[in-house]
## 1
Amino acid sequence: MRSVARSLVVLALLPTTLVGCSTIVQTEASPSSTVSPSVVATWQPDGDAATNQAAFDGLLQPLTNADGVPDEHDVVNALRGAGLTTDQLQVTPAVTPTGLAADTLSVSAEVQGQCLVGQYHKGTYGGSAVVDPIDGACLVGDTVDIDW
C-alpha cells in the first residue's frame, strides 16, 4: 500500500516518468532563461545528488530545443562529458514507438545511491528532482540502451 501511495506522489510530480520518492528537491528552469558559463555549477565527482543538482541542471538546460525535446544522444553526451558513466545514466526515447517526436524526455543520473531526474517537455527543461531509486533504477519504463 505504501508503494502505491509513493507512486501516486511521484506521478503528480513527474507525469510521464515513474521514479522513487523520498525527499523531493525541485528546481525550475525558465524556458526563456539563459545559462551563463560563469554561473553554472561544476560537477563534483565525490558529491552526492543534492550537491550536484545545480550542475546537472546547468548541463541539461542549454540543450532545450524550441521545437520539442533534445536528442537523447546529446543529453547523454553532455552528462558523460561531465564525467558520469553510462552505467549511471538512463534516458527515455526522443521518438515514440510510432516514429513521432516525443512530447517529453526524461533523463536520470544515479549518484551515490540517489537519482537526479530531469525532464524536458515540449521545448522546455523543467528542472530536476532528487529521489531514491526503485528496484535499482532511476527511471522505470521504456528507456534507451546507451550503447554509444
## 2
Amino acid sequence: MRSALATVFVPALILALGIGPVALAQTTASIAPAPSAEAQTDAPFRLIMVEQPGCAYCARWNAELAEIYPKTPEGKLAPLERVQLRAPLPEGLSLRSAPVFTPTFVLVQNGIEVGRIEGYPGQDFFWGLLGMALREAGADLPAPG
C-alpha cells in the first residue's frame, strides 16, 4: 500500500513544490562506479536505477547522491545497477510493470521487484522512501531516529 501511495505521491509532490530541473551541466556529474559482480551477489538486494539521457532528475540524483550511495548502509544492502529506459532489462529480472518515468528506482530481491520509487524528489524524501522499502522487504535497517 505504501509503495503504491509513494508512486502517486512523489510525482505530485515534485509538481506541487515546483522543483525545477537542474542545470544541464550536471548531467556530466561524476557517477559512482558500478559495484563488482562479487558485491552484487553478496548483497541481499539490488537497486535498479532506470534512467535516460537528458533526464534532469537523474542528473540531480547523480550530483547529490551517486558518489555517496555505495558507502551508505542502504547502498551496501542494495548495490546500484543502472539500466537505460529503452534498453532491455537485465536477464532474470521480474518487475510488476515496465518503468515509464526516469529516474525509477526498483528494489529487487532474488530477481523480483519488492519496492519502487518513481522520480527523484530530493535527498530527504529519497532516503526515507528507500529506507521504508528496504524495511518492508525485510532488510535489517534501523528505523529513522
## 3
Amino acid sequence: MIAYPFDAVGNYSDDSKLSRAFSVNPPDITAPTATITNPATQGSELNPSPTLNGTITDNDGGSGIQRLAIAIYSSNTGSFVDLDGNAVNSWTAFNASVPAGNPQTAQWSLDTNLPIGGYTMTAYPFDAVGNYSVDNKVSRTFSVQTPDLSLLPTTY
C-alpha cells in the first residue's frame, strides 16, 4: 500500500509518500470435524454412567476448535434427553469439554448419567469463528445395559 499526503490545494511529493507491505489471510470458512471414540461403533455401554468422548479437529490454518455440541435422543422415551436421561421438550445440545485456547486438535468428553436403554448421540463441532456443518456431524447409536452378573466369579 502506498499513501501520498496532499495539502489543501492538491500538492504532493513522491519524497513524502508512505508505503507499507501487508498480507491478508483468507477467512476461515471450513467447518471442523469430530470423531466418537466412546461408545464404540454401535456398541453397548455396560457402565450406567457412560462418558462419551472422541476427537475434534479444525482444518490446517483454521481458527481452532471452540466447542462440540452434543444432542442425545432416547429410543425408550422417543424424545431428546438431558445428561441424566430426563426427557426435554426439544432438541437440546450439551457442550462437551474441550481445552481452552482454540487448539487445532483436541480430545473431548462429556459425562452422563443415562439410565438403562437405547440412545443416539449426535455431535456437531464448531470452530472459533463459528463454522459448523451438518455434513460434519457424527452420530453413534448405543445402549446402556446392566452388567451380566452371571459372568462374575463366584466365591464359596
## 4
Amino acid sequence: MSEPQPPADGRHQCRDDVPRAPVFDLDQRGMLVAELGADVLIELEASFWNDCSGLMVRAAGACARRDRSELGEALHTLKGAASNLGFAAIAAAATRLRAGPFAVGDWPDLTELELQLALTREALAGKSGQAS
C-alpha cells in the first residue's frame, strides 16, 4: 500500500464528516519568507519537526493516561507552532482534537493528526525536492 499523497490543490479530506483544510496557509508562509527569509523558515521548520515528535509522544501518553489537561496542552502547543509556520492542516487537526468532546471511554484517536503531519512533510518535500 502506498503512502497517502496530498491532492494537487493542496487540500485533503481525512474523513467524510471533516471539512477539507488546505495543507498550507500560503499567506502566512509568504509573510514568513518576506520578513525572515527562506533560510530562517527552513530552520524554523526543522525545529518544528524536532519538537513535534516530543509533542506527539506527550499527546499519546496523555491519551493513554486519560489526562485531558496534558492532552490539551500538547495539542495547543502543536496547533500554535503549526499555525505560526502556516501548516494549516496540522493546526486544524489539532484544533479539532482539542475541541472534541471526550465521553467516558471515548478518547481521541491521533491518527488524523498523524496523517496531516505526514501529508505536510510530503508536501514540503515536493516543494523543496528534499525532506524538511
